[in-house]
Specification:
Layout (H helix, E strand, L loop, with lengths): L19 E6 L5 E6 L4 E5 L4 E5 L8 E6 L5 E6 L3 E6 L5 E6 L4 E8 L16 H4 L35 E7 L3 E6 L3 E7 L7 E10 L5 E9 L5 E10 L1 H5 L1 H53 L4 H11 L4 H11 L1 H44 L12 H46 L6 H4 L3 H14 L5 H5 L1 H6 L29 H7 L19 H26 L1 E12 L11 E7 L4 E8 L3 E11 L10 E6 L28 E2 L1
Antiparallel strand pairs: 1-2, 2-3, 3-4, 5-6, 6-7, 7-8, 9-10, 10-11, 11-12, 13-14, 14-15, 15-16, 16-21, 17-18, 18-19, 19-20
Helix pairs in contact: 3-5, 3-6, 3-13, 4-9, 6-7, 7-9, 7-13
Length: 660
């Protein structure tokens, strides 16, 4: 063998304050991702300028693996607790997060490489932008508790818009599973590696998928129960279904990306609605609750009775008059009314501009998936189930109906609130011997009805027998003021006061037409369910429907071969120096996967290269292996060129390798 003499010159040396565990160079930019013993991920430029730092998600959680997306814009970080975060390089924003069982042990992100004669028309494109309105960024001022952690650019929250070809995130865990995620977000395969030949799988050290998606190579650490010896194997798997349906999987992954982004937007919208609703009740509830508790202690009637008597007869009780003049007052009522009106306006905007738009967009994408599931030869074979997608469409339709119902409730509540506060403002002015403005002093029958509706909807009512029982009022722990009608939609419980729909002609038609009960076209009306309950149900059915392909594809994977490499004594905790170092590379032009590894038990001066065929028609060909001896990298010029590289003995070009 002809040896090539060369030297390596150290250009620069950098120091870090914390011990480094993993380093990964970006495939596109002058960036290096570094993880340390504190569980942090630090992004540096090659000049060692620090770009950002991502802290550990929790105490004692460490980074176990990292992988770059092929365009270098997203970094996947796998942790010891099974969590995986996809971080955007611009600002360290977590674009997506998911969890698998056990500890992450290895990770790789590969991109499918299409033949040169394949153009963009080979992929069917999603036309949702033609039919769906663009979602508006959420206004941070809607919720007073919002601190700006809201996605500003909602259309491409997962950064998938420029992804033309399919790419797959591969990860192995301590539960003997390999997970494959399209674009790092959509689970397309869940593969279980079983024990064989009396060997127990201890760790997955490395995974690699060929660029044509037809072959998966796994580097395994295995052991026998009766001894303390570790055996290292390479297992080759055939992924025929993954390779033959990559176009369909790409479409499913992009759909999942859209839906996942929309669900995050939906969650942020409902969160801001809840914050605005809490603002409404904060001061109102504190004032009226105090009055209600005083009424209960005195045993002199109820809050609702006092306000109804004031509305009907114009005469307040002694307690109510004191409350209006000294607790509520003219100025505080104005302030309270303005605050409530602003909060209601914010909720109304969130419902009309954001909630209904995102609900309709989710329904659109689920309807697309429902149609795709009917094409068994393309999508059904992947596990996309028609019945589950139909269920998801029905739940999404019910959610859209619930948003319309909530909008109507908000409109009615705003009218009632305004009428109640105008009336109460006039009452306080008259009790204070002040003349109310002429435009407020006149009340129509509609205004009286609105005030009565407000009292009915927002104050607890007792039966006549209960009101006569002072002991009951003392024992009852409920306040005299109950949550208003909008708030019940934002709780994880059934509606306390569902809307009255018996007079609705459409509802009457549905109740009298039993033949439409099982219709797949008419969305069911979930009368007693809250908005948050339907949101949780929607997320549940979506996950249930879109997790099935990963199981189906995973079961289709077949073992082609298993190669024994070497053995060493079991060490419960490998040091960085002792542990085998493995890297794998897929070469599309050669239809081969290269596995490179080093191990202390064979020789520190050697690394080994194994080459395997990835073309399914050539799976029967044996693997090829060589060993490479490396001399002193810093002083090669002072050594005999014949000793710098290459085996001294013909046997050194081989490593023990055999099929099992």
């Amino acid at each position: 063998m002809t040896s090539v003499q060369t030297t390596y010159k150290q250009v620069e040396e950098k120091h870090v304050s914390v011990e480094v565990e993993e380093m990964l160079w970006s495939p596109k930019f002058d960036l290096v991702a570094v993880s340390n013993v504190q569980g942090e991920v630090v992004l540096h430029r090659l000049s060692w300028q620090k770009v950002w730092v991502k802290s550990s998600p929790s105490e004692n959680v460490k980074v176990k693996a990292m992988a770059w997306r092929s365009d270098g814009k997203v970094l996947a970080v796998g942790y010891s607790n099974g969590h995986v975060n996809l971080c955007y390089i611009e600002n360290a924003e977590i674009l997506h997060t998911f969890e698998v069982k056990g500890e992450i042990t290895c990770m790789e992100w590969i991109a499918e490489m299409c033949p040169e004669n394949m153009n963009n028309t080979s992929y069917p494109e999603d036309s949702n932008e033609t039919y769906l309105a663009h979602l508006q960024p959420l206004n941070k001022s809607y919720g007073t508790l919002s601190k700006g952690n809201i996605e500003e650019v909602v259309e491409d929250g997962k950064k998938l818009k420029d992804q033309e070809e399919l790419n797959l995130l591969l990860l192995g865990n301590s539960q003997k599973e390999i997970h494959v995620y399209a674009y790092g977000i959509f689970p397309v395969a869940n593969i279980t590696i079983t024990d064989h030949d009396g060997l127990e799988l201890k760790k997955m050290c490395s995974v690699m998928l060929s660029h044509d998606l037809s072959c998966l190579v796994v580097f395994l650490e295995m052991s026998k129960e009766e001894n303390q010896v570790l055996e290292f194997h390479i297992v080759k798997l055939q992924t025929a279904l993954l390779a033959s349906r990559y176009k369909e999987l790409r479409l499913l992954a992009l759909k999942y990306g859209h839906i996942s982004t929309l669900l995050g937007y939906l969650n942020s919208t409902i969160q801001q609605m809840s914050e605005a609703w809490e603002d409404i009740l904060m001061e109102m509830d504190s004032k009226l609750r105090k009055f209600a508790e005083e009424k209960k202690r005195s045993g002199a009637g109820t809050v609702s009775n006092d306000f109804l008597e004031l509305l009907l007869f114009g005469t307040p009780s002694t307690e109510l008059q004191a409350f209006l003049l000294h607790e509520l007052t003219n100025k505080s009522l104005k302030k309270l009314g303005h605050s409530i009106e602003t909060s209601y306006s914010n909720i109304q905007k969130l419902v009309v501009k954001h909630l209904q738009s995102v609900a309709q967009a989710i329904l659109y994408h689920l309807s697309d998936l429902n149609g795709m599931s009917m094409w068994y030869e393309k999508f059904g074979v992947l596990g996309l189930d028609l019945s589950r997608m139909q269920e998801a469409v029905m739940v999404a339709g019910s959610f859209v109906l619930k948003t319309s119902e909530l909008q109507q409730v908000i409109d009615g509540s705003i009218k009632n609130f305004k009428a109640f506060f105008r009336w109460l403002y006039v009452v306080i002015l008259r009790l204070s011997d002040e003349k109310p403005p002429p435009e407020l002093s006149k009340m129509t029958q509609h205004d009286i009805n609105f005030v009565a509706e407000f009292l009915k909807d927002n104050f607890t009512h007792f039966s006549a027998q209960e009101e006569d029982s002072i002991d009951f009022l003392h024992k009852d722990k409920k306040p005299g003021f109950k949550m208003e009608k909008v708030g019940q939609y934002l709780k994880k419980e059934d509606l306390s006061y569902p809307p009255e729909l018996s007079g609705n002609p459409w509802i009457q038609y549905l109740q009298g037409s039993s033949h439409v009960n099982d219709s797949t076209v008419l969305y069911p009306t979930e009368k007693n369910k809250s908005l948050v309950q339907l949101q949780e149900k929607l997320e549940e059915v979506i996950n249930k429907g879109l997790m099935k392909p990963s199981i189906t594809v995973g079961k289709s994977v077949k073992v082609v071969s298993s190669l024994y490499l070497f053995s060493e004594r079991d060490k419960s905790a490998h040091s960085f120096v002792d542990a085998p170092r493995i890297t794998q590379l897929s070469i599309r032009e050669q239809n081969k996967i290269y596995t490179v590894f080093t191990t202390k038990c064979l020789s520190r001066e050697k690394f080994f290269i194994i080459r395997q065929q990835t073309d399914p028609s050539r799976f029967g060909e044996p693997a090829e292996a060589i060993s490479v001896i490396v001399g002193d990298l810093g002083h090669l010029g002072s050594k005999d060129p014949n000793d710098s590289m290459g085996p001294e003995d013909p046997n050194d070009s081989k490593i023990p390798i055999g099929g099992r």
